[in-house]
Amino acid sequence: MTFRPAEIWVERGVEESRVARETRSRCSGAPVRSFADGELPPPASFAEAKTALVLRRHRGGFLQHCPAGTAGMVCCNYLVVNFASNCPYDCSYCFLQDYLADNPRLTAFTNVEDGLDEIAGVLDMHPHKQFRIGTGELADSLALDPVTGLSRLLVPFFAARDNAVLELKTKSACVADLLDLEPRGRVVVSWSLNPDSVAAEEYGTASIAERLSAASRVLAAGYKVAFHLDPIVEHEGWQEAYDRLLDDVFEAVDVAAIAWFSLGALRMTPGLQRAVRARALPARHALGAELVPGADGKMRVWRGLRVRMYRHLVERIRAAAPRAPLYLCMETPGVWQKAMREVPTDRELGIRIAAGARW
Ligand code: SF4
């Protein structure tokens, strides 16, 4: 589904920003309303917050360390930059249902140039360090691209840099704006994937076949691709379902062009479970698993089952794509040791992924 906003709210003073002009021109039929800071009416519900698009300035810094890197977990030294907040899609397990509960309006920030200046300052200050920077933390990186055309600013910016890679992480097939740009090896487009039965709870997203078709198109246009099997959901027949999914991936793309894989088991918090239960969305996979709390406050399936799932997937991926970097997201050193047979330091892991090296 390509998102089209039911209405557009524009903060006073940003009407002539590039993002606001582009959005108005790409959504010419949508009603446009104006608001001053503090005057935006709250949406009737979390679902309604996803139907209109707010365009406003971002206050404060854009760039931050990935919040997934909590103490006690192996971290991949990833940076996130937030050019948007919330997402037009509605995955049953999405942590934004809890994280953005008090501020859920779907928002694209208009002062993108300030964010790029901030990134340029950090990259220039550390010319010998390699950075991986993603836009898919509080939003899907490409779901709003048909509306804002943001990738037309981001791809040339990163293509001109030698010490950073931009990751655009998505569950969409919104790649049209990418295809005539020159990424110069500096942009990785990545897809979160799940078997069709789990992806059926990723409401509004592109089908898995559409995501893989988009991956083959961006590959042909010169981008690197990556895949996140995350959240891995244990369900009846999970081994066969994930095997079929990986077969489809390896049939769709040249394994030599895969920048990395990540694996991450389903993670929920009590707050997220409450938020999901309070909504009417069918959420069998988000709420059906038996989860136990971990040291970081998140609940996952018990450790033995996680290790079994990871080992199965690691073996399948290593057999088909032996050179592709592969890492676990938000996992403990103990699980890393059992599933991956090693525990890299955070620094080592970040360097290896950025360099495209397997181990
Ligand atoms: S695509 Fe990502 S950000 Fe959007 S609803 Fe799904 S999990 Fe949340």
Molecular structure report:
This protein has helices at residues 18-26, 46-49, 96-99, 112-125, 145-148, 151-159, 196-199, 208-220, 238-252, 270-277, 284-288, 303-320, 333-340, 346-355; strands at 8-11, 32-35, 53-56, 63-65, 79-81, 84-85, 90-91, 107-109, 131-134, 164-170, 187-193, 202-203, 224-232, 258-265, 292-293, 299-300, 326-328. With 359 residues, the protein is an alpha/beta fold. The protein has a single domain (59-355), classed as pyruvate-formate lyase- activating enzyme, CATH 3.80.30. The model has no long low-confidence stretch (mean pLDDT 95). Iron/sulfur cluster (SF4) is lined by residues 87, 89-91, 94, 96, 139-140, 171, 202, 205.
Pick out its properties.
359 residues, alpha/beta, pyruvate-formate lyase- activating enzyme, 19% strand, globular, binds iron/sulfur cluster
At a glance:
By secondary structure, the protein is of the alpha/beta class. Helix content is about 35%, strand content about 20%.
